[in-house]
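Lab manual, section 2.4: Encoding a predicted structure.

Procedure: take the sequence of the chain (85 residues), apply the prediction step described in section 2.3, and record the output as structure tokens. A sample record is shown.
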Amino acid sequence: MEDECEVVYVAGLGKMLGRTEASVREGIRRGVDWLPKGFKMGVRHCWLKEDVRDFLRGCRDGENKALKIGRKRHAPPTLIKSQVQ
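Recorded output:
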């Protein structure tokens, strides 16, 4: 019988993302961008199964990429050839 529950908890999310329960909990604590948006129901962190699937589709299609932080890169300097006359 297939699991028909629409709500996923930490252990289930870890299985869906291929991560351990501990890494999901640490990700929640740190607020990482590789976790889909979830909510709390009482004291438990929850995700809707369809939201997780949409998040994974977005990762597959390149929509959930984090912005790169840091300073802008400039083109490296080039040597000017001296003109000998």
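Check your result against the sample. The beta strands are 7-8, 39-41, 44-48.
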